[in-house]
Structure formats: C-alpha cells, structure tokens
Queue: 4 jobs
Job 1
Amino acid sequence: MTTTVDLDDLLSNEQTAAILGVKPNTLEIWRCKGKGPAFLKLGDHPSSPIRYQRSRVMAWLNARTFASTSAYSAAARTA
C-alpha cells in the first residue's frame, strides 16, 4: 500500500513547536520519550531532518481535548 504525503503538509520541528505553544527542545525530549505527535525522519543519518504532518499534529491535539478536569484525570489513569 502506497501512502502519498502532501509536502505542503510537512512542518519543521520549529513550526510544530510554535503550533503547540512549546519550545522546539520540548519536541526533541518528547520524541526521545515516545510522547508527542507522530513524526517523520527523512533519512537514516542522525542529523537527517524531522518533519511532522500537520494532520497528525491536529489529530494529536484533538485526542487531548477534555471537557473537564475530571475527564482528564480518568484518561490519565487509563493511559
């Protein structure tokens, strides 16, 4: 199965951090810990660029939307 990616949909680490309201370094830490939105590694070399798909970033944000603090607490206990 082939998946096509709209290149205009790819965000840099800095762009993604700005959307999420965090520092770029926070995204680096999240990647090491397996947290945060899914990302793409464009190459096998350690210095290869990282990109985020805008749609996945938005889906990640939507999954963290709660109506109350008690709903968040219940979700945190099951995670």
Note: The mean pLDDT is 87.
Job 2
Amino acid sequence: MGQWAVIIPADRWADERLFHHDTVTVSAGATAVAADDEVLLVADGNVVALARAAKPHGDELVLTYLRRSFDNPLPAPTLTDGEITPVDPETFRRFATALGADPTGPHRPTWLVSVALPIEATTPAEAVRQFWSHVLELGPAELPTYVWPSGDELAMQAFVLGAEANQDPEEEDED
C-alpha cells in the first residue's frame, strides 16, 4: 500500500471547507496512486485530511475522507513539491497520528446551526418557499450562519464562507 501527499487546488479547497463531502476528486494525470493507497490531503501548505484512494477513473482520482482537520490544519511545507508526491512511512504516520482519533467516536460535541431570515409572507408555506429561495440565492458567501455548542447559546458565533464573521454593526463602525 502506497502513501501519498495530494495537493487540493485552491478552488476545490474552498468548496471542501464550505460543504461536507464524503469524497474529493482531484486531477491525477499519470499517477502511481492505486486503490486503497493512503493519502494526506494538502491545501495552502497544510495537511488538512487523511483519505483513502478509490480506483482511479481516467485522469481523476477519487479520495474518500478518513479524518479531517480543516479547522486546525497541520503545517507541512515539505509536502508541497508537486501535485501528487510519495511520502515516506515515518512522515506519513506522524501526520496521520496528528490528525487525531476517529471522527465518528464518542468525543464529538453536538452543535446547533441556524439561519434566520425575516420574511414577509401570507402563509407559513410561502414563507418557507421564500426562505429556501433566499438561501439558494445568497448562499454561504452572503448569508451568515450561526453556530453554538448545544446548551450554550451565549457561545453563538456567526460564520460566513466557513470562517467566523463579526455581525455586530457597532463593532464594525469602530474600526
């Protein structure tokens, strides 16, 4: 079984940070990555995930996520030499171990996520239709999403484009 580092292109990395996907597809070209090889995913000079390669489809390589560290990536300046590069076993294990335990384990907290929009409508069903239309129209670039640990509403944070965003207009005026 081979061990590799694969660089995720910037546009694909932006999408991975916004939406939960089970797999990521990257251009593989003429690569030696085989099905069931282990892969460190690298973005912006950091290891962001551990994945397993599926059977290559032409010039495309499908990688299934095993562990993710999108919010706390691991600096990896030595793994940015090429789009797909082999990694020695010691380096690979060091990064794989640092990525942490199985994400499906019992240590995962529960988060509440909310989007609230004031909508004028004549019926609840019309309001719901307008809500989904606004969500599709605005999307993650413009629509703030609020997240907080279950049971701790005071810890609520706003996120836009997958990053924490200040939504207090009074604080923005102070800058």
Note: Confidence is low (pLDDT under 50) at residues 101-106.
Job 3
Amino acid sequence: MRKVNRYYESKLSKYGITPSQFYVMSVMWEKDGVKFKDLAKSLEMDGSTLTSILDRMERQDLVERRNDPEDRRSLLVFLKEKTKQNIAEITCLAEKLDQEIKERFSEEEFATFERVLEKLFQD
C-alpha cells in the first residue's frame, strides 16, 4: 500500500496535492457543498483526520468551509474555482495511474489484490 501511495504522491505532486486530498476532491466533485459529516462518512475517515486535510487544503486555497444556513452546528465544504478547473485533468491522471497499476497484474491477480484490500479495510 505504501508503494502504491508513493506512486500516486509522485504523480499528484505536480498539482501540489496528496492522494488524500485527491480523494477529498473527488467526493466533492460529485457533490460540491457537501456537509462535513457526510464527507467524512463518504471517505470513511474520522473527523479529526478530515479536519487536518481540509485545513491544509484551505491554506492552499483549494476548498472553503462555510456555515450551513440550515443547521448552524454543521459546516459545508466547497471546492474553490481553481480546484474545479483542475479536477478533470487530475481525475484523468488518476485513472491513468489506476490503469498503469492494473496492467502490472493479470486479471486474476488484480481481482485477488482487490479482495485482499477489501478484507483489510472491512469494519
């Protein structure tokens, strides 16, 4: 997993983002203005981890957090315009990286790899 993560890090560094930040951006691309708790749930990430990722992303001007007008205890997270402009290109890169990794395995090996990962990360 660390090797796969480093592989993604090296390619995503061109955009100044980490794989974790990319995952956050991907979920938000599907639903911008997502509630913080829903974002954490979608990413299967605890709140403190997500908070630190969003803190870095805010400092990089990639996202912004706003109060939820319907629930003052809740926050909404939005992609900034510059992030929206780059997300399609970054997503294409991620798909290419996925394909490059997949090509290193036979179909059977890759299916086994996916099953092992699923078992490792089951609750």
Note: The helical segments are 2-12, 19-30, 36-43, 47-59, 81-102, 107-120.
Job 4
Amino acid sequence: MSTVLDKVTPIIEPIVTDFGCQLVDIEYVKEGKAWFLRVYADKDGRIDIEDCVEISEAVSNALDQMQPDPFPEAYFLEVSSPGAERPLKTQADMEAAIGQYIHLDYYAPQYGEKFHEGTLLAVDQDRYCLEIRIKTATKQIEINKKDVAKARMAIKF
C-alpha cells in the first residue's frame, strides 16, 4: 500500500516546477490532533510569499480533484520556503552546497560525535568531506554517506 506522500508527490512536483520553483521537500505529519501537508519550495533569488500563495492555490485545487481522496483525515496545507536551514536530501542538493556551512546528523557517532557542523568541501559517490572547527583548530573529516541520517544547511555563529 502506498503512502499519502507516494500518491501526492507526483501531483505536487510538476505544479511547483510550473511556477519556476524547485520542490525541496514534502511532509505529511500529525501535530496534536491536526494533520499537516507541508510543501517546501525554493527558487533562485528565493521564493516569496506571493509564490507560496500561488503554489498553494494550485496544489489545493489539484489535490481536491484526486479520486479517490488520498487523505484519510482532514489536513492543513502549508506551502513555504525551506528556510535558512533547508534540508539537503539529494546528491544534487549536496553538490550545490559545496563551500557552504552544513549540519550532518549521524545514525551512530562519527569521530566521537552524533553530529558535526562545518564547511562542505567535497562530495563523491560514497563520502562527504567536511572542514570542522575544534576549539581554535580546523580539521578535515570524511563521513560515509550511509552513516548520515540527515543533512541540512546550517547557520554559522
């Protein structure tokens, strides 16, 4: 049995693309008693509120036409920017982030830590190369992709 996201992603992605944007992520989550379908989109020059409104209206209309209804419960649709700490989910996302400050969460500790933040130096088929700071020293580390639970952009303080 396919999930709600499996059913709606092929409907949502071309709509987002038609507005000149990239689909960054989709979430279908329950918070408290309410369900939320969150669509995160972005584009060069950054997505604005008007883009979000237009995409939201188009997505809402398309989802209302789906038969049978893929949603088992009533839900709230939210369309927004992924924000400054946008997720990095694909190889292309990671390659685009080379030279940027990122955050990696691990399934199991790497170099004694559950996560690292640093500048992404390189990406290949199997590994990420990250430059991290430990107190006043910088160090380059390599992390196997299979060990990364989540990756996202990060804000350097």
Note: The chain is about 25% helix and 45% strand.
